[in-house]
């Protein structure tokens, strides 16, 4: 999906890339020239997707601790990433490396899971020494179904490369 936006100075942007030449007419269409390369989400790694989805605070913690190796190209782990606002609501982020690793490992399901396959009250193992995360579903409108991970609504659930999924919590 392409997101077209126009800035206050009337500049046009396509997924954040500035359009440097617009409405170039051709015999078979209209050309827009932009100043960057558009990379589809499916070509990005799971941590970059999380960063772009508003979970940059937990991504920074993951990268700072070296925990990112759990998301190597050949793994099929699912991170459940808290949005920046949720991380900001923590009373205290652990400074002890062992405690921080335990917190981060609780946010990773070491298997390929997609929300379309989750069922109500399902518990999935995490990388945190056998602790599980519980998923519940609720219905706000009869034809919409959302998933809840330990009380947090899941957003931006995308199938990514290597069949990995990323879940962003509010």
UniProtKB/TrEMBL annotation:
Any idea which GO molecular function terms this record carries?
cell adhesion molecule binding
- Report the GO terms under cellular component: extracellular matrix; extracellular space
PROSITE patterns xref list: FAS1
Q: In its UniProt record, which GO terms are filed under biological process?
A: cell adhesion; extracellular matrix organization
Q: Which domain of life is it from?
A: Eukaryota
Xref: SUPFAM superfamilies:
FAS1 domain
Q: What Pfam families does this protein's entry cite?
A: Fasciclin
FAS1 domain: from which residue to which, for each copy? Answer: 1-38
Q: PANTHER family under this entry?
A: FI19380P1 (PTHR10900:SF77), PERIOSTIN-RELATED (PTHR10900)
Name of this chain's protein: TGFBI
Q: Give the taxonomic lineage as stored in the record.
A: Eukaryota, Metazoa, Spiralia, Lophotrochozoa, Mollusca
């Amino acid at each position: 999906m392409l997101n077209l936006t126009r800035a206050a100075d009337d500049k046009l942007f396509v997924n954040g890339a500035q359009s440097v030449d617009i409405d170039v007419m051709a015999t078979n269409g209209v050309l827009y020239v932009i100043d960057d390369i558009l990379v589809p989400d499916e070509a990005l790694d799971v941590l970059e997707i999380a960063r772009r989805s508003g979970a940059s605070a937990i991504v920074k913690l993951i990268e700072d601790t070296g925990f990112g190796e759990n998301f190597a190209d050949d793994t099929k782990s699912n991170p459940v990433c808290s949005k920046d606002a949720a991380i900001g609501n923590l009373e205290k982020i652990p400074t002890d490396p062992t405690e921080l690793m335990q917190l981060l490992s609780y946010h990773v399901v070491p298997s390929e899971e997609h929300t379309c396959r989750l069922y109500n009250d399902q518990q999935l193992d995490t990388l945190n020494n056998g602790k599980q995360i519980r998923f519940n579903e609720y219905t706000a409108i009869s034809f919409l179904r959302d998933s809840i991970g330990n009380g947090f609504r899941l957003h931006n659930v995308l199938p990514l490369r290597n069949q990995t999924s990323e879940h962003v919590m509010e």
